[in-house]
Design brief:
Number of strands: 14
Bound molecules: pyridoxal-5'-phosphate
CATH class of the largest domain: Alpha Beta
CATH superfamily of the largest domain: Type I PLP-dependent aspartate aminotransferase-like (Major domain)
Largest sheet: 7 strands, mixed
Shape: globular
Helix content: 40-55%
Strand content: 5-15%
C-alpha cells in the first residue's frame, strides 16, 4: 500500500463538528437515543439487550444482525453478509481486496474520500467518472464505457450520492449493473444513503440483489441515523470474496461491539418506521432550504437532493468558497463543507460548491443564522 493522504473531510469535521453552534452539513439523518430505539422493539428485545454478555461476537457479525441485514435484501441471505465497523472499514478492505498494481479501476468523483484514496493507494490505476453539475450530476454510461479497459477490475459508485444528492433512474442503474456483469467487472455500490428518498419511486434496487458478483455497501449511520453504533456491512453473493475480506478484518476491528450489533438489528427490523421518520424531517426541511436559496439566488444555485440527506449548492459570490465557509463559521457558527474537502487527485472536481445537510431537526435556526451572516455582508 502507498501512504494514504490526509482525509480532508474527516479532518475538517473533526475540527468543527462538535463545537459549532449550527451543524448545517450533517451527512447522517436525525439520530435517536438508545432508549428510543429500544422502545421500537419488543419487551424481549429490551431484556435481551440488558442480558447481553460483553463478549466478542463473530467476525462475520452476529447471526441476529446478519439475519436482520439479509431481511433488507431480496436475493441475499445471511451467509452473504459480512459486518464491519462502519462503512469505512468495509471500504478500506474492499478496495484493497478488489484491485492492486496492474489493475484499472473507475470511481465516481466527487466522492467520499476513502473510495478514491484507498483505491489509488493500492497501486491500481484509477480513472474518475466525473459527475458534472452542468449535466445534473448524471451517471453517463457512455463516458463510463469510454473509460473501461481490458484491465478494468472495479467500478465503484455511490448512489444516492454524497455530496451531490444525485440518484440515477432505475433503468440507468440496471444498465450500469448489466454493463459491469457483461464485462466481468466487479461493481462496488455504496448505498449508505438509500431508503430516505422523498420521492420513494426513486429508491434504487440494491446492486447485490441485481448481480451475483456486485457488492452493496451499507451502514446503520446514514439513512438510519445511527452512526454511533458503528455497524456497517457488505452484501455480496460471491461468498469466496467475503471469506477473503473476513480474513482481512482480523487485522483491524476483529468484530463489532455486540451491543451495537444488537441495537442495529432492532433498527434494521424497524427500518420502515425509522426511514419514514427521517424522510419526514427531510420533507419538512426542503421548503425551508428552497425558500432560503430562493431569496439568495444571486449568490447560490441550489437543487434539492434526489436521495439521501446532503446536497451540493453552488456558490456564485465573490472570493473563494473556502473563505465564504470560514466567514460563515466565524461570524455565526454555521458549518458547511467547502468543495475543497472533496479534492480529487485523479480529476478536476468542482471547486465552487459546498455541502449542506437537510436531514436534521433545527434547520430553521441554522438557516436564520446563515441569513444573518449574508445580510451583514
Ligand atoms: C458515501 C459514504 N460512504 C461511507 C461513509 C462512511 O460511513 P461510516 O462513517 O458510517 O463508516 C460515509 C460517511 O460520511 C459516506 O458519506
Amino acid at each position: 500500500m502507498k501512504p494514504l493522504r490526509t482525509f480532508r473531510l474527516e479532518e475538517y469535521l473533526g475540527e468543527w463538528e462538535f463545537g459549532a453552534r449550527h451543524y448545517l452539513t450533517a451527512s447522517d439523518a436525525q439520530s435517536m437515543s438508545v432508549g428510543d430505539l429500544l422502545d421500537m422493539g419488543s419487551e424481549s428485545d429490551r431484556e435481551g439487550f440488558a442480558a447481553l454478555p460483553l463478549t466478542y461476537v463473530e467476525t462475520w457479525g452476529s447471526e441476529n444482525l446478519r439475519d436482520a441485514i439479509a431481511g433488507t435484501y431480496e436475493r441475499v441471505d445471511a451467509a452473504h453478509v459480512l459486518a464491519f465497523s462502519g462503512a469505512q472499514e468495509a471500504l478500506f478492505w474492499a478496495m484493497q481486496e478488489l484491485v492492486g498494481p496492474g489493475d484499472h479501476a473507475v470511481v465516481t468523483v466527487p466522492c467520499y474520500q476513502s473510495m478514491e484514496t484507498v483505491t489509488v493507494a493500492t497501486g491500481a490505476h484509477v480513472s474518475a467518472l466525473l459527475m458534472r453539475r452542468e449535466h445534473g450530476w448524471a451517471l453517463d454510461l457512455d463516458e463510463l464505457r469510454g473509460l473501461l479497459r481490458p484491465t478494468t477490475r472495479l467500478v465503484a459508485v455511490n448512489y444516492p450520492n454524497n455530496p451531490t444528492g444525485h440518484v440515477p433512474d432505475a433503468e440507468t442503474f440496471r444498465e450500469l449493473v448489466a454493463l459491469c456483469d457483461e464485462r466481468g467487472i466487479r461493481l462496488f455500490c455504496d448505498e449508505v444513503y438509500r431508503g430516505i428518498e422523498v420521492d420513494q419511486a426513486r429508491t434504487l434496487p440494491q446492486a447485490a440483489d441485481l448481480s451475483e458478483t456486485a457488492l452493496s455497501l451499507n451502514v446503520a449511520s446514514k439513512s438510519y441515523g445511527l452512526p454511533g453504533l458503528r455497524v456497517g456491512w457488505l452484501a455480496c453473493r460471491d461468498r469466496a470474496l467475503l471469506e477473503r475480506l473476513e480474513k482481512r478484518k482480523h487485522y483491524t476491528s476483529i468484530c463489532n461491539p455486540g451491543p451495537s450489533e444488537y441495537l442495529a438489528a432492532i433498527g434494521l427490523r424497524h427500518r420502515d418506521r425509522i426511514w419514514a421518520r427521517n424522510r419526514a424531517v427531510i420533507t419538512a426541511n426542503l421548503p425551508l432550504f428552497a425558500d432560503f436559496f430562493g431569496r439568495w439566488a444571486d449568490l447560490f444555485e441550489w437543487e434539492p437532493p434526489l436521495g439521501g440527506c446532503v446536497c451540493f449548492p453552488r456558490y456564485k459570490g465573490a472570493g473563494s468558497v473556502d473563505d465564504f465557509c470560514r466567514r460563515l463559521l466565524q461570524r455565526e457558527g454555521v458549518v458547511v463543507l467547502p468543495a475543497s474537502v472533496y479534492y480529487s487527485e485523479i480529476a478536476e472536481a468542482p471547486t465552487d460548491h459546498f455541502r449542506v445537510g437537510v436531514g436534521r431537526l433545527g434547520a430553521e435556526e441554522s438557516l436564520e443564522a446563515f441569513d444573518r451572516c449574508l445580510r451583514a455582508g
